[in-house]
Amino acid sequence: MSEKPTYEELEKRIQEFEQLESSQKLIEKAVEAEHKRFNYVLDTLPVYLIFLSPDCHVPFANRFFRDRFGESKGQRCFEYLFGRTEPCEPCETYTILKTMKPHQWEWLGPDGRWYDIYDMPFTDTDGSTLIMEMGIDITERKRTEEALRVSEKRYRSIIELNSAGYFLINLDGRFQEVNDAWLKMHGYSSSDEIIGKHFSITQVENNLEAAKNMVKSLIEGMSIPSGEFSRLCQDGSIGYHMFTANPVVKEGRLTGLEGFMIDITERKKAEEALRESGEKYRTLFEESFDGLFITSPGGRILDMNRKGVMMFGYDTKDEILSLDLERDVYAIPPDRKRILSLVNAQGSAEYDILVKKKSGQTMLTHCSLTAVKDEWGVITSYRGIIRDITEHRRTEDSLRESEEKYRALVENSMDAVFLSAQDGRVFAANKGACEMLGMSESEIVASGRNAIVDLNDPRLPAALKERAQTGRFSGELNFKKKDGAVFPVWISSTLFKDSHGDERTCIVAHDISERKKLEEELARVEKLESLGLLAGGIAHDFNNILTTILGNISLAGMLVKPEDEISELLNEAEKASIRAQMLTRQLLTFAKGGAPVKEIASISDIIKESSLFVLRGSKSRCEFSIKDDLWAAEIDVGQINQVINNIVLNARQAMPNGGIIRVAADNFIIEERSGLPVKPGTYIRITIADQGVGIAEKQLSNIFDPFFTTKQLGSGLGLTTTYSIIKKHDGHISVESRLGAGTTFYIYLPASDKIVPKKEDVHLMSGQGRILVMDDEAPLRKVVGKILEKLGYESDFAKDGAEAILLFKQAKESGKPYDAVILDLTVPGGMGGKETIKKLLEIDPEVKAIVSSGYSDAPVLADFRAYGFKAVMPKPFELRSLSKVLDEALKSKG
Fold first, then answer.
1. I need a labelling partner for 259 at 20 to 30 A (CA). Which of 48, 145, 447, 761 fits?
2. Residue 855: helix, strand or coil by DSSP?
3. Lowest mean pLDDT among 513-517, 639-643, 645-649, 883-887
4. Helix, strand or coil for residue 791?
5. Same domain? 637 vs 544
6. Based on the domain organization, do 475 and 386 belong to the same domain?
């Protein structure tokens, strides 16, 4: 058992309990005091503050709320605020409790005032969820906003309905707003077309600087004088206006400029029209071809124009104004009283009067006088027109003479002139018309217009319609001769009325048959020039393709044994490609006609190969007579091939049923007085004779002219090209022919004392070194790269001159320069070989460059050394020829 506490211990415990109770009461008092202070603070807030429970009860509302809406304790908000039995839909309280996120909204209370509400959900100390709602009275702000809105609406109405144009621009001078009146004034249909645009687009160019300075002054608050200003409308027209403007200041800050414009364009036009009217009147008065004058009712001269002063022989108007009419002007005084009475009665009168000039000479004049009355009908002056009619009879004589000249001119005109009635009946035709139609004038008159004009001409209806509508027609139509032949004429047809008022037509026609032929020939030239350009482009591209083909054939040939069957097939393919090369050379000769790329060659081989090639599949055959010791010649093999082709082809076509073409070649010496238009010396003479229909003697002198041909489907360019090629080889070509006896051509080509190089089988020449290849064709670069690799070379590639120059320079700077460079002459859209070699020579004067081109007639190929190249490699080429050219270029010196 425990011992009982002593009295002292019990007393001590009682004292501890009393102290504890006293502390608890102190804490409760402190809490109560703090709670009162908190409630006091909430009650003194100038906003309403309430707490809402999840079921919409209001456990607390401050005084501001109670004063506005009454006591709410123990009630739900929708009961005491709106007298409802059910919560509001939607209920803000439920929404906040659902999201547990703060919410701000505006509320029109039952007291008719607006509140800005802020709701905040929170958890109380007992774990329950409450919403603290704070409301600030914003009624005055809402009223101010409404007043501002109404004011803004009224302001907008004033702007939009105002007949004056309104504008608002910002500090950058760009339009922010314009009204309909402004848009209409400037010719715009929508504000979207102008908003954001600078105001300068509405300014006339010569006023733009002044307008900018004016806007700057207005924005800076400086006043400007009012006045009239011009404006530029959207359609380019000029308008005029007066305007007022003021700076726009918002919240103490300058934001732009606004103003109104009043359109005064019509007033300006009226003023300008009035001014122009006065000026026009004065101009007409002074510049009139007739003498004009004004007199007072008493007969004193008040004014006279320049023509009148000159007519009377005076120097100044003042001399006239000082004259006395009766004494100084009238040679025979008229019955002035009668004239004035007539003018006063009728308003005007005309009469002839004899007057004196300053020199004393007289002149007969015709005068027209008109009375000028004021608004009350009182005559204030007389205005008159005076005309010198002294030469009237002389004019009539001149008119008769003019008619005679006109008749002579019409009769002797080379053009056809017709006069016809409205119904198309021809009643006159000149000698030119008779000669043009092969008819007499009586035949033309009897046959009528329909026998002259080709009624099947589709342009005729439109021509008649145009003349009927406008009174004139000029254009091309077809006429018919007496024999029915139709020919083109340029016709000018004009309607006029004769002295009796009857409508007539004057037709002037010019025969344009020759001009039409010339136009057709010119059109043909343009087509052929286009064809030539096309042929050149095709040949160039074809040569590139052939180079790729030949290169690959050569590479393939290295991979097989000579005795293999495939080796023979590759050889045949190579020969076919080389024959195709001849075709491209012919195309290039036709396209360019450039300088020959000459080489020492045997004419004999060329004559035989070309002739036999042309006659394949025909009914004709060749008989050759070629000297065994025929001299060599320095020629362009491709071009001379084309010459032989053209002449033998003409011979074949001249013998459609077949025949023999005799082709001979011998050595020929031309003496000083041979009569041939070439230098004396040694020549090779080629003779080609056929047994065809022959050429008429009158046509022989024209056969080498462009487009001349006796063949229905011929172009007329074959012999022209032949003539050009022979001339560029410093040779001569002539022809002999008779109808039914055949034709013989003679060709003279300068001989060469050089020996024709023997055709040796070009064997592969391997080498070493770095080669730079520039070509725009990727397949060609690829095959050349493979060839160079087979030959033992290293290679780099460039697609154009710019890239080649860069690679060449980098290689030289790195200490590993290229041993040779192969440059394509033509690079579409880029730098070609001709331009590239110039740059490479600047970098390295000793560069060993080889020029290559599909245009085998290019001047650079004919004289490649003059351009800085060491060798030439015409396309197409294959492995062996490339190895040889490379070997020669690398071994070349200087």
1. 145
2. coil
3. 513-517
4. helix
5. yes
6. no
